[in-house]
Amino acid sequence: MIVRRQDAKAQTNRMPGLKIIFCALLAMLGLQSAEVAASDMLTVAVAANFYRPMQEIAATYRKQTGTNVRLVSGSTGQLYAQIIQGAPYQVFFAADARRPELLESQGLTQPGSRFTYATGSLVLWSMREDLGLKERGIKSLLDTRVKRIAIANPNTAPYGRAAMQALKAAGMDRAMRTKLVFGENVGQAFLFVRSGNADAGLVAASSTYQAGGKVAAVPPDSYDPIVQQAVALRHAPEAAQKFTAFLSSPAARKVLRKYGYGVPQ
Q1: How large is the angle between the packed helices 250-258 and 51-65, nearest 10 degrees?
Q2: Which is deepest, 55, 152, 160, 240, by most CB within 10 Å?
Q3: CA Rg, the chain, in Å?
Q4: What is the model's pTM?
């Protein structure tokens, strides 16, 4: 969709007061005009681990319905904080269940809209060929050649919290403390590894789809289940719940499975 820029002077003359403020909020999200109406545009906050599959799902949804979906990605904690502060998102796809539950308890969601859309998994990933990830698993991080290990910030990102739990379950959390480098979200932790700024990382399985390198599973009983929930926010249009319902469609579930997510029954 192409949105043409309007003459700034003419636009200002037509949009006094609150309309100017509204347009400024849209501009913060990269939208160029208030002509993009809520009826054909949804603004969706999506946890970093789910950004790539959501791009595919949103593109399919647009083809089927004509509704454009604007994606804003970040850590679950960051997005939650932005919603609390009034960010104009309409749907929130989190990497946990806790933040959607909190928003629901605070009256910031549409009643009955919260649901589990996927379950995630943690993997150990490296671009290096010499660490024996598949043979040694998480213990390969004890190798002296591993200087930096990337994980998401455990204070704001569920995958970061899961990474710390997995290290603790392996009895390695203290030994690895000086090696850890923290991304703002699991997507940034993935980029640290891909760029070579970290030797290995504990990241979302979805991040490593078609990424190359070496991948080793992390025992799922070594961290709390990563139950990922979504919710339509309080002032969202009817189109928001139609979009969340689309996540249960065969087309969306096919994408979820492709990226390694568990699909709710």
Answers
A1: 160
A2: 152
A3: 20
A4: 0.82
